[in-house]
Task: inverse folding
């Protein structure tokens, strides 16, 4: 999952970017509101962390503009503005959540998982297609009786696929969700990650659609009952 971080404070930005990368997100960081507007038009990100007090354009302006343009990507506002009026305004302008500085980075990560989940149409904390399930809090994947820890990038790959079971993602789409701007991507990087996930969980977990890309199956099993299924197989 690829995150746009909009933050002009270098220390906070560094801390958040490092924490996000450690948690297996691809992160792109911009430092002012005008740059944020420009980047958001590209539609490359699956979530935005938005500071409000920004040079060149206020964060609220950025938020209002993207919502007016029909951009529905989840936005978590991270700001030192802690008045009730500011919070109400942020939420009314279309923020999905609001975190006041200073915040615990683990809380930010938990809130990010929650908004990603809701946008994926799942209220349950596990992502699943009925065959394989993924716990974004621990980065553990389960397929039948097999439970494996995934590397940050294996996790990012499987998460991208599990957010849209049945949809084919191309190599470029997968790369976009796994890597940030400044990261060099080897031409066979995606194949390597897919190989890693299949080796851990079984070859059937990720299907290759020749010439098109990769997908995870969309199975009938009810996503909401995934945790019950987990218990039954134990
Ligand atoms: Ca700021």
Result:
């Amino acid at each position: 999952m690829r995150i746009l971080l909009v933050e002009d404070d270098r220390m906070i930005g560094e801390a958040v970017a490092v924490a996000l990368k450690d948690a297996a997100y691809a992160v792109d960081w911009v430092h002012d509101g005008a740059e944020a507007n420009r980047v958001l038009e590209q539609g490359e990100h699956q979530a935005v962390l938005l500071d409000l007090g920004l040079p060149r354009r206020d964060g609220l302006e950025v938020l209002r503009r993207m919502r007016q343009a029909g951009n529905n990507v989840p936005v978590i506002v991270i700001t030192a503005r802690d008045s009730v009026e500011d919070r109400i305004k942020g939420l009314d302008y279309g923020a999905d959540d609001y975190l006041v500085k200073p915040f615990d980075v683990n809380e930010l990560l938990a809130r990010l998982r929650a908004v990603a989940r809701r946008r994926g149409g799942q209220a349950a904390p596990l992502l699943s297609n009925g065959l394989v399930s993924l716990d974004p809090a621990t980065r553990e994947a389960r397929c039948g009786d097999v439970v494996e820890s995934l590397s940050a990038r294996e996790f990012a790959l499987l998460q991208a696929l599990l957010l849209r079971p049945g949809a084919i993602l191309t190599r470029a789409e997968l790369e976009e969700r796994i890597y940030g701007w400044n990261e060099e991507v080897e031409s066979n990087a995606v194949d390597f990650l897919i190989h890693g996930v299949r080796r851990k969980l079984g070859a059937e977990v990720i299907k290759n659609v020749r010439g098109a890309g990769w997908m995870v199956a969309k199975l009938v099993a009810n996503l909401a009952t995934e945790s019950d299924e987990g218990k039954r197989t134990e």
Q: What stands out?
A: Residues 127-224 form a domain with the Arc Repressor Mutant, subunit A fold (CATH 1.10.10.10). The radius of gyration is 18 Å.
